[in-house]
Specification:
The complex is a heterodimer of chains A (419) and B (481). With 419 residues, chain A is α/β, with parallel strands linked by helices. Helices cover 19% and strands 34% of the residues of chain A. In chain A, helix 1 runs parallel beside helix 7 and helix 5 (165-176) packs parallel to helix 6. In chain B, 54% of the residues are buried. Classes of the chains: A alpha/beta (419), B alpha+beta (481). Chains A and B meet through strand 8, helix 3, helix 4, strand 11 and strand 15 of A and helix 7, strand 18, helix 9, helix 12 and strand 23 of B.
């Protein structure tokens, strides 16, 4: 069986960045991608707005991916395309089962693994939208793929449920292609997309956004004919008498993304009920020694730049892990969550190995126009920063230097709303 | 001129076709949809009931117990999946315990094998997620679970192997009687002669009957059942079919482990007006969740991947209606087949042919009862997988990542016996799109494979019925090319 030092699964934004930063002549790496080309979901994101942080310029998705792919080629990192990892088991090393029309069905051994498998879109079934089940209802990302990769519109009169970024981007994209987008309904009282997308994709095209509304009925036997939306109360229950019906042939769903961690199935992985993915330490390592997770497979990001950033960090730490031979004693301390914090990545800190700056990525539970972000330790505030705008849709981050921590005791992340 | 035309290719029509194909007769099966077995057969609880519930002395009681037994034979002959779960019927408190004892008597009288009461401690050991307020449990070991669509599909495939013909998109709009035969007219303008007609058209059976019969003895009262599906990752959270005590509305809301590892929750039971209205409702889901409190407080709802509904062909006749028309000899109605219709179907087919039609000829000597199932890639052993990919590289390409379905699995489902060229047809045959992401990742690839294999433009590939293309208009860039 082939033995490699580090297998990176997924050749999208996270995997590409991880492979580049893990590259080192002393270790052998392989990047495994199921599609015939690298880039992942970036390939279907032909709009711009990518790279402002990584490259200080605005690129389209394919351009952004291209930069990483070129760098990867330059370094000669080996890539397996059209290869799907079907299963991972942890024995003495990791054992991967791969299937590929080119390289066949094979087992591969690896000392370390980075999972960078991205996320999938929540479907109608997971939220159980009532009504019939005709054709014409699909996740916004699927419609994006059909439009930008295959060159076809999936419908001409469109309604969008959920104000996630893909839905907003698709509202604009389908409008530009001649479809009529009748509206976007969002069950929350605030949008779930980036502010810039609300402005550039909805406002600029006079597409109404119905906040605190959801789809409550679907009509049509074979083909979608109409949908009904209703306002919801504070418990998200539809309010009678607020029904509005739209005659549409398409309902796109942009109701959330979920880390694609099907490969955890063969592993004894501890999972967070909030992120639906693994608990990791500051090195992006899971409770399984040598297994790292990063990018949207770990938690869903708003910007690809942050995905790449996380991939780079995970790649760096995975390389360090492979190169360090001895088993090191850990001292894991879980980061406790204060008010208004939904989750934080990392979930815990290995205090015995805190040598690099520590990035805390987190989301808040509600919209706040003025707040103080704080990190507490040993009863004292060791970090604080004021924020003029916080929303669940926008990921926040704080970076701490190791010497800002006073001890090896747990830290607490807290958001104080200022009124 | 056919000897038999069967209207409807659901599980009942399919098994009748197979039963008749044992004899030297010509058979045609019509289905009005773009695929076979598209309605009730695809949307039910998938349970092969033991026969504990139907009233003693009814056709339902007799055919359910017989049908349950016949599934063991079908498993061998047709290689259909059968999960031998057994079932528990649970009671809370003295009043329900008494009803459970009556149910025991009924099961016993109906001839259900091995029915017995179980020790509670043992129950909670076997099903730790059951709610602890349960006080008495009846065990029905002969209860099984199957994949109903595959049973219909396998039966049709086997009937075809033995000489039957089948035709999709064949909507019967008129039936007339000519001296010694019937004339069946379809919506597409074609007409077909036959000596006998078997009406197995499910929720449409009273409409089909009244195309010719003046005095139809039954009327369909469509009854909708809604369900929720949990992902296969919940496998092993429940091992048995779990029933509450039956009520006048039916068997109640159940927990049903499925053959692919999923768990089905439901059904509701609601009389509706539009017999093809398989919509789900908010009230239905709430009802299911509420009713499940009687069974368990540990149901992993977070793994819900789908809701669906089926319309059951309940009739005004208080039993299965399996009779020859009084006015038109040779016109047979197999109607009102609601629960336990799936279980009874093999026995219904045999009962119709042997006791109602009373077919008077010897069985064919060359009748072949065997249907060999095509194994999918993920059902092969590790060694076979590796050999298969070497021989056929398209087995190496995983299309549906969630259910691990390969490009070759899909190609074979397109071209196989009773092949299909729609996205939903492929989902039924190969399970591509049945997993967590519900086709979000693989649907576009399935579409491309269908287009390539059938030599049709991408934009003509249908989701399900005719005229349901997924792609409706080329982009502006395309137009300029």
């Amino acid at each position: 069986m082939n033995m490699i030092d580090l297998a990176i699964i997924g050749g999208g934004a996270a995997g590409l960045a991880a492979a580049l930063s893990a590259h080192d002549e002393k270790i052998n790496i392989v990047l495994i991608e199921r599609d015939p080309q690298l880039g992942g979901i970036l390939n279907q994101c032909i709009h711009n707005g990518f790279g402002l942080h990584q490259f200080k310029e605005e690129l389209t998705g394919p351009e952004y991916a291209h930069r990483f792919i070129e760098a990867l080629k330059e370094k000669g990192i080996s890539v397996m395309l059209e290869s799907t990892v079907l299963d991972i088991q942890k024995k003495e090393h990791f054992e991967l089962i791969l299937s590929s029309p080119i390289q066949g069905y094979q087992h591969l051994q690896a000392r370390a693994v980075i999972l960078a498998t991205g996320c999938y879109e929540r479907t109608r079934g997971s939220v159980l939208i009532p009504g019939t089940r005709p054709k014409g209802i699909m996740p916004a990302g699927s419609a994006q793929r059909y439009l930008n990769m295959e060159g076809y519109l999936v419908g001409q009169r469109v309604f969008i449920l959920g104000s996630g970024d893909i839905g907003l981007i698709m509202a604009r994209r389908m409008t530009l292609e001649g479809a009529k987008v009748l509206g976007v309904a969002e069950i929350m009282p605030y949008s779930n997309g980036l502010t810039r997308n609300i402005v550039q994709c909805l406002h600029d095209f006079d597409i109404p956004l119905y906040l605190s509304h959801t789809v409550t009925n679907i009509k049509g036997k074979d083909t979608l004919e109409a949908i009904t939306i209703q306002a919801v109360d504070h418990r998200f229950e539809p309010i009678a008498g607020t029904e509005k019906t739209f005659e549409v042939d398409t309902l796109l769903l942009s109701i959330g993304l979920i880390p694609d961690v099907a490969l955890f199935d063969g592993l004894n992985m501890k999972k967070s009920p909030v992120t639906k993915s693994a608990y990791v330490d500051q090195h992006y390592m899971t409770n399984i020694e040598g297994l790292f997770v990063c990018g949207n497979a770990l938690h869903v990001h708003d910007l690809v730049d942050w995905v790449s950033d996380e991939g780079q960090k995970a790649g760096y730490h995975a390389k360090k892990y492979v190169l360090s031979s001895q088993n090191q004693e850990k001292d894991d301390q879980v980061i406790t969550l204060g008010d208004h914090v939904r989750y934080v990545v990392p979930h815990h800190i290995d205090m015995n190995h805190l040598t690099e700056p520590l990035t805390l990525s987190f989301r808040v539970t509600k919209k706040m126009t003025s707040a103080m972000l704080q990190v507490h330790q040993d009863g004292a505030i060791i970090f604080q920063r004021k924020s003029a705008y916080l929303a669940p849709a926008e990921m926040e981050s704080i970076t701490l230097k190791p010497d800002q921590l006073k001890s090896k005791n747990p830290i607490r992340l807290h958001v104080e709303e200022l009124i | 001129m056919y000897d038999y035309i069967i209207i409807g290719s659901g599980i009942v029509g399919s098994l009748i076709a197979r039963e008749l194909s044992k004899y030297d007769v010509s058979i045609m099966v019509f289905d009005k949809e773009n695929d076979f077995a598209s309605h009730q057969t695809t949307a039910n609880s998938a349970i092969i009931h033991s026969g504990h519930d139907p009233k003693e002395g009814t056709l339902k009681a007799r055919l359910c117990v017989e049908g349950n037994r016949l599934y063991d034979q079908l498993e061998k002959e047709l290689e259909i999946p059968l999960l031998r779960t057994g079932a528990f019927v649970v009671a809370h408190g003295p009043k329900e315990e008494k009803m459970l004892e009556e149910l025991y008597d009924r099961a016993h009288n109906n001839g259900v094998p091995d029915v017995h009461f179980l020790d509670l401690e043992d129950i909670f050991k076997q099903e730790p997620r059951l709610i602890k307020t349960i006080t008495k449990v009846l065990s029905l070991p002969s209860t099984k679970v199957t994949y109903p669509w595959e049973v219909a599909f396998a039966s049709l495939e086997n009937a075809v192997k033995n000489g039957a013909s089948i035709r999709r998109n064949s909507h019967v709009v008129a039936i007339t009687k000519d001296r010694d035969h019937f004339l069946v007219e379809l919506k597409d303008g074609t007409s077909w002669q036959t000596k006998r007609i078997i009406n197995a058209s499910g929720v449409m059976s009273d409409i089909v009957a009244s195309l010719l019969d003046k005095d139809v003895q039954f009327q369909i009262i469509p009854r909708r059942g809604e369900y929720m599906v949990l992902d296969r990752r919940v496998k092993d959270t429940f091992h048995h079919v779990i029933y509450p005590l039956p009520t006048f509305r039916g068997k109640g809301v159940l927990i049903v482990p499925q053959v692919h590892g999923n768990i089905l929750l439901g059904p509701t039971s609601e009389v509706i007006e539009d017999r093809e209205d398989a919509s789900t409702t908010k009230e239905g889901i709430l009802y299911i969740k509420e009713q499940l409190h009687y069974l368990s407080d540990q149901i992993p709802f977070e793994w819900t991947i789908r809701g669906f509904a089926g319309v059951r062909a309940t009739s005004t006749y208080d039993d299965f209606y399996i009779q020859e028309s009084k006015y038109y000899p040779g016109f047979y109605h197999v109607a009102g087949i609601d629960s336990p219709g799936l279980t009874s179907a093999p026995a219904i087919a045999r009962y119709l042919v042997e006791e109602v039609i009373k077919i008077n000829q010897p069985k064919k000597i060359n009748y072949d009862p065997i249907r060999q199932k095509k194994l999918f890639f993920n059902q092969l052993s590790e060694d076979e997988k590796s050999i298969r990919v070497k021989d056929c590289p398209s087995h190496g390409r995983i299309v549906c990542k969630c259910e691990k379905i390969t490009e070759q699995d899909i190609i074979e489902s397109i071209h196989g016996p009773l092949g299909n060229d729609t996205v939903k047809g492929i989902k039924k045959r190969a399970r591509a799109g049945s997993g967590l992401c519900q086709g979000g990742y693989c649907e576009s690839m399935v579409l491309q494979i269908i287009a390539k294999e059938t030599n049709k433009p991408l934009s003509t590939i249908n989701y399900d019925g005719e005229h349901t293309p997924i792609l409706v208009k080329e982009t502006k860039t395309h137009e300029h090319d």
